[in-house]
Amino acid sequence: MKIIIVGINSWYIYHFWLPLINELKKKYNLFIVTEYDEYSNKLEEKGFKCIYVNFSNRSLNILKNIKAIYKIFSIYKKIKPDLVHHFNPKPVIIGSLVAHILKIRFIINSYPGLGNLFRKDKIKFNIIRPFILLAYIAINRKNVNSIFQVKKDEELFIKKKLINKSKTNYISSSGVDTMKFKMRDSFNMKNKLKVAMISRINVDKGIDTYLKIAKKLNDRCDFFLAGQFYQFENTRFSESQLIESCNENSITYLSFVKDMSTFLNQIDILILPTRRLEGVPKIILESCSCGVVPIASDIGGCGEIVLPDINGYLIEMNNIDMFVNKIKVLDKDRLLMSYLGKNGRKLVEKNFEVSNIIANYMHLYKSKSIL
Prior knowledge:
By secondary structure, this protein is of the alpha/beta class. The protein is 44% helix and 17% strand. It folds into two domains: 2-175 and 353-367, Rossmann fold; 193-351, Rossmann fold (3-Layer(aba) Sandwich), CATH 3.40.50.2000. Helix 7 (207-217) packs across helix 12 and helix 10 (282-289) packs across helix 13 (334-351). The radius of gyration is 21 Å and the shape is globular. The termini are close together.
């Protein structure tokens, strides 16, 4: 049985779907098709058969997209897979189109989140959105199963008739390893709160909002910023400008953190002021698993894991004062903070344990008589 997993880049496949592809590799002839990056070698070192395609994810250049289509066509024609599973919008559209042409029997398309597609503050996406929606309609046929992490995304696609209702599946995330991301031994009941934003660093993730939050509270909390800086994602500022802004607002800039589980057990509050229609953010899952209290924007999949007043808070996007207010509430009431942190761990154990998520995917494959 030949299976091809297709994702936008190696970082994404490695970071979100390593447990799934490890399980598939044990039993089936598995191929990974993705864009080459610094995580590609990590996949190869683990024994995965990787083939690289330049999806030019942020480009609308027709020639670049034609090259990607041709490359995917060549790969699928050569391997002749029994099943292809696409992640992210470009692989979903390009891969499904090619799979239909080559009459591949089973197609699974995953929609972890809507990203920027339905954002109304982005002129580019307002222009291209109708064409992307038409593409979604064109590729969703009888042999396509769609997976959503966010229930509202699934409902939106059904409402707009972008997919067949009978062919949708809701699997709430990529999961978290609760044995690796362990619950903390104790909560910070008297020292200064440690507040962190952990994310790819760009404006869409709300880095500018976080800087303003820290400026208002740096006299009573310790602030940290962790995440890799990619220049191609940051046309508005350079890394040196970011470091300067962090210094001005008393934020400790950590860049990439290798041992995330240890770091999460050292902080009290996670801030995610994202403007993107996320899937279920993995960093929130990992944080809750460690008892960290998340305060996040009330958009996308943040609400799938952050339940207001139960394990954290959802804040209106860009509402800096409300983010600040909730941090102050937790600073004053440390018992409340521990209550929310403990609830977060329970929620992860119940709904987001990675072994259960992978079992859901394997059940889906088997229920369709695919594997």
